[in-house]
Every structure is written in C-alpha cells, then in structure tokens.
Design a protein that fits this description.
heterodimer, A: alpha/beta, 8-stranded mixed beta sheet, two-stranded antiparallel ribbon, 10 strands, about 45% helix, B: mainly alpha, 9 helices, flat
Chain lengths: ~350, ~260
Amino acid sequence: MNLSFDEIALSYKELFIKTVDNSKKLKEIYDNPINTSISETPYQIVYTEDRVRLKYYKLPKGVKKKIKTPLLITYALINRETMLDLEPKRSIVKNFLNKGIELYIIDWGYPTKKDKYLTIEDHICGYMDNIVNYIRIRENVPKINLMGICMGGTFSIIYSSIFTKKIKNLITTVTPTNFNTSQGLLHLWMKGMNIDTLVSSYGNIPGDLMNLGFLLLNPAKLVLDKYKNFVNNIDNKRFVENFVRMEKWIFDSPDVPGETFRQFIKDLYQNNLLIKNKMVIGDNKINLKRIDIPLLNFYGEYDHLVPPEACNKITSAVGSKDVEDVGLKTGHIGIYVSSKYQNVFVPKIIEWLKSRDINIKV
Amino acid sequence: MSDFNFWTNGSFKEIYNNILRQTVGTKGFKYSEKHYDEIQSIMESIFNKFHLDDMFDLKSLSKIINDSIIDTINFNSFDEIIKKFKFDSDSSYENSFINFTKEIFESEINKIFSIPQVGLGRGYQEKINQTLDKYLILQTTTYKFLYMLYLPFEKTIEYIKNSSDGPIEFSLKDDRFYGEWISTLEKNYMILLSSEEYNEVLSKTVEALSEFRKARNSIVHDFLKSYDLPVDSDMDGLYKEIYDLKKRIKSLEKKI
C-alpha cells in the first residue's frame, strides 16, 4: 500500500477532529452522573464462614414460587458472582426471581494470605457442604438443586459425586471437565507451566496476574479493539455505563488460594484426572459414575476459555441416563451477559427443573 | 578491565560459535557468524563500563547492559532489530538474536553469580548474587516474550501491504483498513499463541518471574528481620497452624 504524505496527513487531521469531538462528548457524559453500579438486586447474607458468604435472593412481591426445591449457584473462584447481576435489565438473578425461582449464591469472598493452604477439599467438603446442609435445614428439604458456573461447575460435579444424597438435579454451565484438549489456549498453556514455583513464590495466585493471562488469550480484541469500540461509542451513555460495569466485573478478581490453584492445575489441566475417575479429594476418590441424578450441561460453542470439547464429555461420563447437553452459539460469558442468550438459558433451566420437580407439592 | 579480556580475545568467539552451532544449526550459524563483530562489541562495551561495585546495584547493572546493547548496535526501532537479526522471515523464534543473548546470559554471566562466597556475610552475598542472576534471567526472558508479542503486528502489516486484492485505502471514514488490520492481527495472534514456541517462552517467563520474586524476597526478609519485623516465612508458619487447628475444630464440631 502506498500512501502519500498528504493522504496520511489528512487521515491524522480527521483523527484529530474526531478526537476533539469525542472529548467534548465525553465531557458532556461525565458532567452528568452515570450509573455503573453492579449487583444491585437486594439480597440477604444468611450464612457466613471465614471469608465465604451465602447470598439469599427472595422472590419479589407478587411473584409465585414455581419450584419447591431451592437452587444453589456456585460460582468460580476466579472473578466474582456479581457477573450474574451486572445490570438490572440484563440480570440472570432478576430473570430467575421474576420467573419464580428463589436463589442462593455462594460468594467466595477475597482470599487473604491466611487462606493460602485451603485446598479443593476444603472448598467442596468444607464450605460447600456446610452451605448445602444449611439450606437443607433452612428450607426443610432433603435435597437441593445445584448449578455450577465454570470452575464452580467442576466443584459442583465433584460435590455431587461425593454427596450423592444431597443433590436433586445438577446444572453445569461452561464447566471444564475434560482437560485433554488443544482447542483452548489455557489448556495448551497450563500443560507446561511450573505451578509449584508459581505457588511457592506468590502463595495465593494474584487476580491481576490471572487477568493479564486472560487478556493475552486474545490481545487484539481485548487490549485494542475493545477500547477502540469504547471510544467510538463514547457518545452513547448506555453503552458507556455497561462498558464500565463490565470492566468493573472483569478486573474485580480475587486472588486464588495457592493450594487450590496448585491442585486444580496439576490434577485437572495437567493430568486430566477428573474425567478419568482418578481424582482424589480428601479421602474420596472421585467416581463420576456415582452421579445418577439428572444433569443439564450448557456450554458456549465459541467459548475460547473453556471450549466445547472441554465441556461436552461429562454427560457420557456420569452414571445418570437423564442427561442433556445444550450448546449455545456464544462465548464464555455471553450466556450470562447477553440478553439474547439469557432469554434462552433461564427459561430452559426453569422448564427443565420444573419437569423434575413434579413430585413435590408447592 | 583487564580481567575481562576473555571477552575480547578468541575464547569468546569459540564459545559463541559452539553455542550457535548447538542452538541454531548450520544455516543460522552461517548467518550469525557475520554478526560476531557486533556481539563482540556489545560484550566489550558492557565490560568496559562494568565496575565490581555495580554487582551490588541491580539498577546500574541493568542500565549498563541495556545501554551497551543500544549504544553498540544503535537500534532506531524494533524493525531494525528484526531486519538485523531475523535469519529469514519464516525461521523459528529460536533463531533470533534475543534467544542468543539469553543463552549467553544463562551460560556465561550466570556463572559469575554462582561463585561461592566466603566469610561472615557469605549467606547475604550469595542471596544478592542470586537475585542479580534471577533478575538478568527475567530480563532476557521478558525481552523474548515481548518480542514474540510484537511479531503478529509486523506480520499483519506485511499482509496488509501485500494483500492480493490490492492495497486497502487507509481512511478513518469507512474503517475498512482498521477492520482488515484487526482481524488479521487477531488471526496472527491466534497462530502465535497456539504455537509451542510461545508456550515455552510463556512458561519460562512466568518461571523466571517467580524465581526472581523468591530471590528478591529473601533479601527483603533479611532486611526486615534486622528490624524484628515478622516476614512471610514466620507468618506462613502461623497461617499453617491456624489452618490445621481450624480444620480439626470443624471436624470435631461435625462429630458432636
């Protein structure tokens, strides 16, 4: 391509004019208050243990309870569960509540140095099991419904294979269970990573370090193009508000307890033990065939973090015959933040749960 | 610095040639041999400026090395680095100059920092040397990592220039140029990020960062201990005790 000096100068002139124009619009936006709050749906903290809290979302007035069995959502230890309630108009939490589903959501909190020795067993057989027991007593039910997101889904699968009597239905979303895949960059990168050195150097793995890794998954889009789009839409207040909300969520990354991280990477990313039924959690050797409850498994067909191949093996690995895979044409977080997919995802879960809740009187 | 004449006589050339033969093969060797004089100039420049006191000051040591490389080669831009040291456009990253300097640091300079120390302060001195060593390894690994992250930009511009559909008009109005550029850049990044070479460099960079942190912290710990302040290792012991006690209490609670 041959560009003359005049052509380049003209382009820069256009760029300059556009920048000045955008700056004026930016000033107009920032002169008025903008709302970038996240997680605004009211909730109660009904249980706490160490840094972990249990959020309870009550049905709004006038909305009738559709399903008797309570639903517990387990989020990953990476990033925060606030993603489920980013903004009132695109909130998974609100969507569930408005359709008559009460929610319990685990907030894993912010691990500090004293949490560095916590293992996967401590999270699953400790915090998660205590929370499940609390909900069973509070709601006076023998079993609850469990829904896991990403790493929280992996935790939910492990939990369901150990505590088979406490879970009625299991829903996994963008959940990695088969780590022997070359589809996702994380899977490739983690294979050769010296996790012992990393954990012994850092203790807990800093959220910022992981975020840097996530940005490197697609630098062109996540470091350049995203912010170019932001500048292009600077005069769109709603776009700016939602963009900032997303930025707040993405970069709100708690550190991950070192021992949990070490085991997750070594046992799963490097040795793929879960799907082989060889993973050991405390005194329990995990056998996926013990999961004989209904399983609904969602994954994103364009997910670059947890690719389909990492998600869709679980339905054939569990003991249950009542299983279903649902592939949505979106990425890792598109399921939760896109209005289009929320309108598919939430009704599907509700219908699926309702049809398996018929033997319980409401 | 007469002690460092080693770098300016034939010994260095022999080591350089041996390493090159082993690491880049015959093709790369023939090409790199031409740059022997340049490498020699860099090393001379480093050791002419080098003073033993600099070993105790990370910042000045790093500056000497960086300045020497930049002064000697007189890079004007990253483009020149690539033109000077890339063996051919499709060659693997292993054949780059950056990889070569990394080898030199690891196989030669590293040995200086591994010389056993003696006397009352030997433990402290060894920690300082180790930190310097890890710092240099981190520097060289990071250079290579950043260089790799730059490569997709270069490839993208080359593609845009040589596009078979003819040159794309550079205009801010229709965004065609940007659209083509960003999608090509994304594709090139995907090729890079999935490559074994990138995976290896990423792992080494993370490991170098971890090792440097550990070495640096050991010096900081010595310093803090002199002020009777608790350090990580003290706190880790305490955290472990709390963790074990809590676990026992929770287990007993469940049994009651």
